[in-house]
Design brief:
Order of helices and strands: HHHHH
Radius of gyration: 17 Å
Shape: elongated
Largest sheet: none
């Protein structure tokens, strides 16, 4: 007996659930790493790694917004948000592999899975934009290298 394909409504709810759990995971990682690195007056976090932590939290929220508010009758650019944000987060995973990157992997994978599920239209065609993932990852990596090279 062949497996049944999930309905578009079921896929959407699974995507929203993945996005919520993944975003919460990323926000928890950012909070825990921020608290472990901070001095009592928080000056030790600024400008780096504080800006990176804020960017990770912001990208997680942007990705969640893109998944939750995308749909057939919504703006065409909304499904692109989680792919672009996921690419930028992937750069943090790779470049921060020995520090925070390892802890970001579950959240990033969950957001990308949610983006993939949310990108399937009612006909079953994948309308995602993985090229945005790669572009955002390369741009974010270049920005990180530039900031580190500048002595940030």
């Amino acid at each position: 007996m062949p497996a049944e394909t999930p309905t578009p409504g079921a896929r959407r709810w699974v995507a929203i659930g993945l996005a919520a759990v993944s975003t919460a995971s990323l926000l928890l990682v950012v909070t825990l790493f921020g608290r472990s690195q901070a001095s009592p007056d928080l000056r030790s976090l600024w400008p780096l790694p504080g800006l990176y932590l804020l960017e990770i939290a912001g990208l997680a929220l942007v990705s969640w917004i893109g998944i939750v508010f995308s749909g057939p009758n919504r703006a065409a650019w909304l499904p692109a948000l989680p792919w672009a944000a996921g690419g930028a987060l992937f750069a943090f995973v790779v470049l921060g592999a020995w520090t925070i990157g390892l802890f970001l992997i579950p959240g990033v994978v969950g957001l990308l899975a949610g983006a993939w599920l949310a990108g399937i239209d009612p006909r079953g065609v994948l309308t995602s934009r993985p090229i945005l993932f790669l572009t955002a990852a390369l741009i974010q990596a270049a920005v990180i290298f530039a900031v580190v090279a500048a002595g940030g």
